[in-house]
Design brief:
With 150 residues, this protein is of the alpha/beta class. It has 2 domains: 2-116, 3-Layer(aba) Sandwich (Rossmann fold); 118-150, no CATH class. The chain is 45% helix and 18% strand. The protein contains 6 helices and 6 strands. α1 links the parallel β1 and β2.
Length: 150
């Protein structure tokens, strides 16, 4: 699989290392060259310095032939915009984006984006562990958040 990950913070670098270790072709984009130090010396994937909203940067990263695009920067707006560009402009088959705001995550999920919302997932995991001594799956927490807000 050819994977592009936008954002080389804790989530992006961990995902990049895991996918690279699993044998996938991984390219990581970040604004700051020093962010790539998190990848460590064993990561031999491609590193692209630049703004993921810039189509020239996306093309240098190989978006025209990638199978998966994941946006996990700190900014919800950047993640949403780049996910939409990957999906709508470049027709990337699988696009996943992290959105930290549960309300926005649900709104964009209803528009067809695959969203991951850490506050929703983590709070559900902790609650279930404390009250029921069980762990649920990510889908359960997203569904519960929707139901709480209807």
């Amino acid at each position: 699989m050819n994977v592009i990950i936008l954002g080389c913070g804790r989530v992006g670098c961990t995902l990049a290392r895991r996918l690279y270790h699993d044998g996938h072709n991984v390219t990581v984009i970040d604004l700051l060259p020093e962010a790539f130090r998190r990848l460590g010396p064993k990561f031999k994937g491609q590193r692209v310095v630049g703004n993921g909203l810039d189509q020239d940067v996306l093309k240098r990263a190989g978006i025209e032939s990638c199978d998966v695009f994941v946006s996990v920067t700190q900014g919800d707006n950047r993640n949403i915009m780049t996910a939409q560009i990957a999906r709508e402009v470049y027709k990337v088959p699988r696009v996943v984006t992290r959105i930290n705001d549960p309300i926005r995550a649900e709104a964009y999920r209803q528009m067809g984006l695959v969203t991951i919302c850490a506050p929703t997932i983590v709070s559900g995991l902790i609650r279930d562990f404390l009250t029921e001594d069980r762990w649920a799956v990510e889908h359960d927490y997203n569904r519960e958040y929707i139901d709480m807000n209807l």
